[in-house]
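This section describes the prediction task in plain terms. A model, or a person checking by hand, is given the sequence of a single protein chain and must write out its three-dimensional structure as a string of C-alpha cells. No templates, partner chains or ligands are provided. The sample shown here is typical of the held-out split.
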Amino acid sequence: MGISPTHWQASTFPGSCQKKISVVHDGIDTDFVRPNKEVILTITTPNGVELNLNRSHEVVTFVNRNLEPYRGYHIFMRALLQILKAKPNARILIVGDSDVSYGSRPDQKRYGFNNWKDIFFNEIKSKLNKDELERIHFLGNIPYQQFIPLLQLSKVHVYLTYPFVLSWSLLEAMSTGCAIVASNTSPVVEAIKHNETGKLVDFFDPISLAENIIELLNDGQQCALLGANARKFAVENYDLQKVCLPQQI
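The expected answer:
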C-alpha cells in the first residue's frame, strides 16, 4: 500500500496502483498555525528596509521556496501593475529565493538575467513609479518564527502553481485565516473552493488575478468570511494531530 497527500497526485499513478493508495495529507499544526489579530511583525529586507507591520496594513503575500514560473511568479508580478495602482496603501511581501526548485533555469543570453526573480521584476519596473516600486518587498527566505506572523497579518495570500504538489504554505495560510486567491489548477482545487474557502482564477490571467485581489482588499467582510472558511476547512481536513496522523497510523 501507499500514501499520497492529494487525490490529484494519486491519480497520476498507474491504475493498478491507485487502488492501493490512501490519500492522506502530511498535515499541519493548526493549533500553532492560527489567526492572531494582535500580530506585529518587524522584519528587515535583504536590501536593508525595516518593516513594522500589523493587521491594519494592506498586506498581500506571495510565498515560494524559489521564485519561478512553475509556481506562477511571472503571473503574480504582472498582476502587481494593476494592484499597486488601484491600492495606493497596499504592500506586497514576497518570500522566496532566486534559485529554482522545480523548473529549468533561464538562459541568461536570452533574458539578460540568470534567475527568474530578476527577469520578471525587471519586466514591470519601468511601468511603476517610485512609490509603487517601494511597496514591493522581496524578503528572501525567512525563518519560520517570522513566516507564521507574516501569514497572520496578511490580508490576501496568493498561491499559484502548475499541476504539481500542494505546498504546506497554502494550507498554513488557510490555517491562519488568510483570504486566498489561487490558481484553478490541480491539486489546489482540493483545498480552495471558489467563493467558499477562497477565490480561484485562471493561472495565466494576471488581470483576473489582480481584480480578485483588489476586490478582497476593498471588501473586508468578504475577506474575513473567506478567511474564516479557509481556517475551518484546514482544521477539519488537514490538522496533523486530529486528522492526518491518525489516518497515517
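For orientation: Residues 163 and 240 are 24 Å apart (CA to CA).
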